[in-house]
Amino acid sequence: MKSENVTIKKEYCPNCFNAIGSMRPCPYCGNEQFDRKNPLALPVNVVLKNRYVVGRMLGAGGFGITYKCYDLKERKICAIKEYAPSTSATRLSDSLTLTATSVSRQEIFEHGREKFLGEAATLSKLQDIPDVVKIWDCFEMNGTAYFVMEFLSGSTLNGIKKAYGGRIEYSIAYGIILQAAESLGKIHEEGNIFHRDISPENIMVTADLEVKIIDFGTAKYINNQKSQTLSVVLKPGYAPPEQYSTTSKQGAFTDVYALASTFYYVLTGKKIPAAPDRLVNEDFVPLEDYDFLGEQYAGLTLVLKDALRTSVKKRIQTMEEFASRLKSFHSSITGQKSDSSFVHSEERTVLDEGDGKKRGNKKIESPKKITRIYPYLEGKTDPIYGYRYYIPLNTMVTVGRSKESNIVINMGVIGRKHLEVFYDTDSGLFFLMDNHSVNHTYINNKLCEPEVIYPVKPGSYLRLAGNSCVFQLGVVNEEYRG
């Protein structure tokens, strides 16, 4: 594998990819992270294939590392996943080449690389399904393999759960899970592929509020005995009993179990017991037993019980059936038609431009234009990166670590009620006030004095505790006729 790496010393910001030379932090986005904490990760500003500039690390798992990158040819941001198994690979002194940790692990390392390339092939078969991350390139170098994907600005379901303080309220969690179920139904039917590794880490919510299913590689190892030594992800609490066997049949019902487990986890903050333990007693704590849920969720408990049956024959068989059951329950407690969007908007009537149309002998006037305003705070640092917190109009909202805050940021450096945010529709400005936070609040790079109200324009950056938690303020103006 011929090396085509080029290293650009302190040239691009690994987050926004503006050319910044030696300036620290980045004057454009405030990023200060230029060094790797993971010894297995590539250095920043390495250029792969004479084309892709390696930026910040987006995540690392048992088999690979994903980076935010910049495509010099297409002039766009992308994501690159590198095969880098943490238990069987090491980086050589050149900080680039990957090799097996020992001769005895060489076969395991190479076998895993083949399976990694198989994930790229799987994704390529699903490119017509919009709910799956797009793949643009695949190549081998540095002793390992890479594939290039679209960059998804957003957060995993697990990241959203953390940002909400440990669990997600039903009104939000329902919409995400329903979208995931509908997406997986398309993948099963159109792609004839079962994911087999559904968990909160593999469901992505983009900044555009779309649900994407990610990571189609690791679950492929389950049915191969050799690959059991490759740190196979059988995630307790998500994997059904059939995944613990090399001979049991798997199918759409396997993903149903995992998605139902995920729903339960994000609603309650508690995992379903591991599948082997449930073979003796498959009961779990009903949703209605949780004080923050209550009796109205008894019907959802019944749906989840049927989706979490340890017996494959007794379990809900398809994502279509699971989604239908979820919609029926949702309608029963809300009295509304089910919607797979977790940001619900008013029902809209849209007619053509003009002075009106005639329907029969009756003239129907064109509806007046109506503008809906949605102010938001969009996360720019982990674990809230890309996630939008929409705030109500003309209402004071508290941001802080306390569960009593309207927007909960579960980070120790954030104050219990760090600051207050208000969006004024008359002026079109945000008004912010720091609540004597220990680690301070900054608007762009200006320190805010406690209990002083600051008017702030949309597009500005709100920094909590330095750059530990960064938001960008924004407003969506949505025009329709009503």
Automatic annotation (TrEMBL):
<dbReference type="GO" id="GO:0005524">
    <property type="term" value="F:ATP binding"/>
</dbReference>
<dbReference type="InterPro" id="IPR000253">
    <property type="entry name" value="FHA_dom"/>
</dbReference>
<protein>
    <submittedName>
        <fullName>FHA domain-containing protein</fullName>
    </submittedName>
</protein>
<dbReference type="Pfam" id="PF00498">
    <property type="entry name" value="FHA"/>
</dbReference>
<keyword id="KW-0547">Nucleotide-binding</keyword>
<dbReference type="Pfam" id="PF00069">
    <property type="entry name" value="Pkinase"/>
</dbReference>
<feature type="domain" description="Protein kinase">
    <location>
        <begin position="52"/>
        <end position="333"/>
    </location>
</feature>
<dbReference type="InterPro" id="IPR008266">
    <property type="entry name" value="Tyr_kinase_AS"/>
</dbReference>
<dbReference type="InterPro" id="IPR017441">
    <property type="entry name" value="Protein_kinase_ATP_BS"/>
</dbReference>
<dbReference type="InterPro" id="IPR008984">
    <property type="entry name" value="SMAD_FHA_dom_sf"/>
</dbReference>
<keyword id="KW-0067">ATP-binding</keyword>
<dbReference type="InterPro" id="IPR011009">
    <property type="entry name" value="Kinase-like_dom_sf"/>
</dbReference>
<dbReference type="GO" id="GO:0005737">
    <property type="term" value="C:cytoplasm"/>
</dbReference>
<dbReference type="InterPro" id="IPR000719">
    <property type="entry name" value="Prot_kinase_dom"/>
</dbReference>
<dbReference type="GO" id="GO:0004674">
    <property type="term" value="F:protein serine/threonine kinase activity"/>
</dbReference>
<dbReference type="InterPro" id="IPR053235">
    <property type="entry name" value="Ser_Thr_kinase"/>
</dbReference>
<feature type="domain" description="FHA">
    <location>
        <begin position="397"/>
        <end position="448"/>
    </location>
</feature>
<feature type="binding site">
    <location>
        <position position="81"/>
    </location>
    <ligand>
        <name>ATP</name>
    </ligand>
</feature>
